[in-house]
Amino acid sequence: MDTRVGSEPPYLDHAVTRRRPPGRVGRALRFVAMVILPVLLLAGALATFGYLRSTRPAVPVERQAERPRAVQAIAAAPGEVRPTITAFGVIAAGRSVDLRALVAGEIVSVSERLVDGGRVAEGEELLRIDPFAFEGAVIRARADLAETQGRIAELEARIRQENDAVASAREQLAITARELERLERLRASGAASERAFDEVRLRVSQVQAALDTRTNQLAIFKAQRAQLDAGLERQGFALRQAERNLADAVLRAPFAALVSNAAAERGRLVGQNDRVATLVATDRLEARFSLSDAQYARLAAAGELVGRTVEILWRAGGTEIRREARIVRVAPEARDAAFSVHAAFPGEGLPGLLRPGAFVEARLPDRAYPDALLVPAAALYEGGLFRIDEESRLRRVPAEILAHAEEGTIVRAPVAPGTRLLASRLTAPADGQLVEVRP
Prior knowledge:
Layout: H1 10-18, H2 24-54, E1 69-71, E2 73-75, E3 79-81, E4 84-93, E5 96-100, E6 105-110, E7 119-120, E8 125-129, H3 132-189, H4 194-248, E9 250-252, E10 257-260, E11 269-270, E12 275-281, E13 285-292, H5 293-301, E14 309-316, E15 319-330, E16 338-344, E17 359-365, E18 369-375, E19 384-388, E20 394-398, E21 400-404, E22 409-412, E23 420-422, E24 435-437
Parallel strand pairs: 1-24
Antiparallel strand pairs: 2-23, 3-18, 4-13, 4-17, 5-12, 6-8, 6-11, 7-10, 8-9, 10-12, 13-16, 14-15, 14-17, 15-16, 18-22, 19-20, 21-22
């Protein structure tokens, strides 16, 4: 065993020899295995795929026949079209009034029909207010009037008496005046004394004073009569007012009506002008419905709306009522882009089944469109139509939309009468597409 300092064991030389880096040949082999060989394999695979693809047998392709689409069609009938406008509204009261107490007092009786939904006749007694105070007022007014009339009668008698007295005083004055004239002539001739002349002149003055007194008294009596006449008119009015208040203690229906908002009970104290119920006239029910701006413009362009006939239709619970009405007025201004129209029912009006607030339909003829077509909305495609030719293929036709109506859309298009028009809704229809018309 070699124990020299600096010597290495033989196994260390062998290990170092095995970990020595490869030479050029090893690197070349490694490059070929990792790069060139995969490329060659990929190229061979592509070449094999191309060969197999180019040498595969050709498979014949069978062309599928064109299948028509099932559609519905209508026959064109150009001409004058007058559609129907359908509007919606309610039955409204053409006349209603808040029934109010005309006098104040305690209610002592109420009609059984003065309840919500009750039907009352014209002139029917609805309620009665305690008449005691009003009867007393009538008695006082009649007594005051009778007293004034008595005073007037007394004054008339005094006036007649004074008139007689004035006439007598004037007669006496005339006599004494003639006597004074005679004495004055006699005194001038010396046949009468101065004393006698003075006595007669004194009597003339006394008679004149009495006449003046009677005349003034007569004027006073006439002035008093004028005052009593004025009081007589005032007391006559007070009597009529008291009698009217007594009559107003009984409240009657001013017209045949339906009752709503009833608030009258026996024993209730009501003040003057307190509301006790609302009356809706049964003979003046109207249909109130709305027309859009477009509908109103079309109808107004054809003439005045007032006076036109409209059909009112009410449906509920399997019951259908149709009545003809006539437009009587149109609201002066539009609200929410709509015009309110009122139509009245002539003749017998509406049956008792209907009430204000019932929802109704209103149908009235629209304006006429000459040389137009009425087609369903499904027949329109981007503002145009499709006609079906003799080979059952679609052909686009331009169309002008005139109006939309309940029955469909009104258009104007260059089509001949009897031309079949597509009436079904298709997805992406095309010019020349094959279709099959089915009923």
